[in-house]
Amino acid sequence: MNPVISHFEKTALVSLEKQDCLIRRLGEHIVELDFDTGMARFNSDAAFPFQVLGTESDNSLTWLWGWAEEQSEVSEELLRSARELKTWGEKEGVTEFTVPSLDLNRADGTMLSLIASRICAASGYYRDHYDGGTLFVLLYGADSDPCPEFDRAGLVRALRDPVSRYDFDHRKALLSYFSMRNLRFSESDDTVNAELAGGERLVAQFDHAGQLRTINGESLT
Hints:
Layout (H helix, E strand, L loop, with lengths): L2 H24 L4 E4 L4 E4 L4 E11 L4 E4 L14 H13 L8 E3 L5 H11 L4 E7 L2 E7 L12 H14 L4 H11 L4 E4 L2 E5 L5 E6 L5 E4 L6
Antiparallel strand pairs: 1-2, 2-3, 3-4, 3-7, 4-5, 6-7, 8-9, 9-10, 10-11
Helix pairs in contact: 1-3, 1-4, 1-5
């Protein structure tokens, strides 16, 4: 198994839960990234510290880590999390976190940011689009209030995008989420039954490769 996919399966849904909470808190917004102070300022008067992860290029279709950008004027302080992730990647054998750049079909900014959000205990990540690409940053301090866990509709909604974009074991991702959230679940052949935090029942059916077929009888597509 590719290590980056394995870590994605372990962390994706917990990170998407935080991301869903962050997006709802920010609402409709305009952001200014202040690279002098390291603060992301939103027009809702919210402001949170941020760390630069890296960029996606629309032209070369590659990801470039912030610490590898030779022309960057980003301070070392704002690259602290990215460098910690590089060290983590070297320790865990996750090459995608250690090489300067990689093709987006190998791992894109969203996948890397979801893993990074969990590893760095961030509140979530933010995409700042610019002409020719997208800057990805981690936000901190935006989750001071408890974040509600997914209900069934929220979990299904969160799954749709990664299921459509990435090749991973859906069953492992769901079981990891249940375990990390200490939710009760049981398995039998191609079916997983779980009780979500709010008491809702979730019944997921999979094919032999661990790909989702239905949740409570309905397809994700």
